[in-house]
Amino acid sequence: MLDVDGLVYSFRNQSELPTPGTPYGGWESTELGGHFVGHYMSATAKMWASTNNDTVYKKMTAVVSALYDCQKKMGTGYLSAFPSELFDRFEQIQPVWAPYYTIHKIMAGLVDQYTFAGNTKALEMVVWMAEYFGNRVQNVIAKYSIERHWASLNEETGGMNDVLYRLYSITGNQKHLILAHLFDKPCFLGMLALQADSLSNFHSNTHIPIVIGAQMRYEVTGDPLYKDLSTFFMNIVNSSHCYATGGTSVSEFWRDPKRLADTLQTENEESCTTYNMLKVSRNLFRWTKDMAYADYYERALTNGVLGIQRGTEPGVMIYMLPLGPGVSKAHTYHGWGTPFNAFWCCYGTGIESFSKLGDSIYFEEEGSSPALYIIQYISSSLKWKSSQVGINQKVETPTSTDPYLRVTLVISADEATGKSSTLKLRIPFWTSLDGAKASLNDQELHIPAPGTFMSITKNWSSNDKIVLQFPMSLRTEAIKDDRREYASIKAILYGPYLLVGLSDGDWDLQTKNTHSLSDFIAPIPSSSYNSQLITLVQPTQNSTQVVIKDSKDTLTMDDFPGPGTKSTVHATFRLIDHSPNNASSTIIGKSVSLEPFDQPGKVVSHQGPNKGLVVVSNANSGRNSMFKFVPGLDGKPESVSLESAGSPGCYVGAVNGGVRLVCRAVGSGENGLVSFVLSGGLSEYHPMSFVAEGEKQNFLLQPLFGLRDESYTAYFNFGV
């Protein structure tokens, strides 16, 4: 989809090489230009490593080769899409947009191309870049002072320390180690070393990468201080600054600890921060095998990453994940980006996130008897080389009416190894032993408590099969806010999935006289209910229109909406069939009510002859909400009309942009006004859908990751 010439256009322009093609827009045409190309090299390297796709290999190799030519042409080791003058401004503490942020992305991309794809040209390039920037930093220190260098780091520098520690682990060059130290931000890491939660007002995505760099410092030097401070950092973010999604930040910054209730808005959870927090938790799990980090990874990946792309549309991503009442991914400061003219920071981390969905499912523990931790239940396959075992994992999609996560692991093995190994299977914290099952080749296994690992050691044979069943239940989590007035603000989760309620702003649940969530939340049988969803379509001479519910709960006509838009929700209704059980299976002759898709428990009702149709509570609707399908009065074979059950001879009709009960004599020229084509619903219930009783309305609950433009609330007020 992305063109090599377009990606490297600005690099070639800086090096005064010919520039075929067309440059990309958005942030790639600003002072931050080139950052996405760095992410692109990282993402393609990881994608190729897991797929061996020839197209990916050819394109990423072409990008590296083009950048190699650019660096050679400039002849200094410098490589970027912007002039080196930006670093003059950076070193003089003058306004400039984060040049080292971009350099980190380019260097990291080259390191990944070497590490995952074996491209030695990429290693040569990044070593030369390190030499160039090492000289620049040393010149600043010599000309001014070390304090001047530290002051310059108040600008966002990405993970320069991280990539330089990684480079040192490859080269063993002490210059790379020293330069990495010089990008450790001491004023921030020192605070963490003292175990002080003073994150308030720090820019989140400036500082999380510095912690990742500190983790690499621990890995290459063994200094336990950096392990300890990153552990402390993860603990305070997770306990005091995280939303139920696992994400953090509001308008890109941290606020006071345990003061999140009044931060719920459109600009929550910058996508880049989730990408980086996943790195922090992954490293901590590798070192400790602590289940808490695996649980966090599942939460943040499921709720904070999977939904940042608009459905399956390539190149359409969000910057922020809004969490306030009545918000929409489409209506934030940035909204959805575009494939060729956005390229925000979150586009770069976004493509990397999707390129490495499989990198934290399996973790190997080396030794005389190797062990494999399986910490994420995601359909996947693995060749476990050290144990000469293959694993194929298949996960069934959970549903609200069948509350279990079911996993099957099928083993393939080299029969000649004669070697035993251990599988360690995560028992998630959110499950329970009541209803949990595990078996090996149909033999039942003992399951330990949730929040631990189940170990199975054997000399594996081909077609060994492990079957797991984990009960899933609804639960709530209070928002991280220790003020009493916000104690009623909670999120609803189903297993690891955050459920949000479709809403234009209402968030009040009806919890009076209830003792458990099942008293006011019920599963929706999505497979049967989806077959009951319809949209009323009316083709006109100039356009195709649909019946839609507007914000005032009245019915109007509007243009046929695009997929995933808010209007698709409001143009979808569920047919509640009131016909006798032995009635015909065809739609003609059926008596029905129309329930708005996003307002379970309400129905469409008329207010009398020639008056508009509105949405009311089903309990108070009476016969005004019942309609009978009859053949379309326009005489077309595909048309239907809806006749009022309580007012025979009156029909639902489109009049002057509104929807009314038309009771006057319908002439031949007006028959089309009361005739519609019955289409399948433009929206559908997700398999994990529920209905929750609210004070003013009922809420359709669905997983956050599945939404596109719909309006929703991620937290609810349980205090009503």
Please, could you describe this protein's structure?
The strands form 6 sheets. Strands 11, 12, 13, 14, 27, 28, 29 and 30 form an 8-stranded antiparallel beta sheet that branches. Helix 11 (204-221) packs antiparallel against helix 12. The chain has 17 helices and 30 strands. With 720 residues, the chain is an alpha+beta fold. The mean pLDDT is 95. The protein is globular and about 90 Å long.
The coarse overall form would be globular
Helix content: 25-40%
Give the rounded overall mean pLDDT: 95
Based on the structure, what is the oligomeric state of the protein chains? single chain
Query: What is the number of beta strands?
Result: 30
Instruction: State the distance separating the first and last CA atoms.
Output: 50 Å
Structural class: alpha+beta
What does the radius of gyration come to? Answer: 29 Å
Beta-strand residue percentage: 15-25%
Number of helices: 17
List the uncertain runs. none
Major β-sheet profile: 8 strands, antiparallel
Domain Non-reducing end beta-L-arabinofuranosidase-like GH127 catalytic: 2-359
Domain Non-reducing end beta-L-arabinofuranosidase-like GH127 middle: 372-472
GO molecular function, one term: alpha-L-arabinofuranosidase activity
InterPro entries: 6-hairpin_glycosidase_sf, AbfB_ABD_sf, Beta-AFase-like_GH127_cat, Beta-AFase-like_GH127_middle
Q: Notable features of this structure?
A:
alpha+beta; 8-stranded antiparallel beta sheet; 21% strand; 31% helix; globular; 6-stranded antiparallel beta sheet; 720 residues; 17 helices
Present the secondary structure layout.
Layout: H1 4-14, H2 35-51, H3 54-74, H4 85-91, H5 99-117, H6 120-143, H7 146-152, H8 160-171, H9 174-181, H10 186-193, H11 204-221, H12 224-240, H13 271-288, H14 291-304, H15 345-355, E1 362-365, E2 371-374, E3 380-384, E4 389-395, E5 404-413, E6 421-427, E7 437-440, E8 443-444, E9 452-458, E10 465-471, E11 474-478, E12 489-494, E13 497-502, E14 521-523, H16 526-530, E15 533-539, E16 544-549, E17 555-559, H17 566-570, E18 573-577, E19 591-596, E20 602-606, E21 613-617, E22 627-631, E23 639-644, E24 651-655, E25 658-662, E26 676-680, E27 690-692, E28 699-703, E29 712-713, E30 716-717
Parallel strand pairs: 2-6
Antiparallel strand pairs: 1-2, 3-4, 4-5, 5-10, 6-9, 7-8, 7-10, 11-12, 12-13, 12-30, 13-28, 13-29, 14-27, 15-16, 15-18, 15-26, 16-17, 18-19, 19-22, 20-21, 22-23, 23-26, 24-25, 27-28
Helix pairs in contact: 1-3, 2-3, 2-5, 2-15, 5-6, 5-8, 6-7, 8-9, 8-11, 11-12, 11-13, 12-13, 13-14
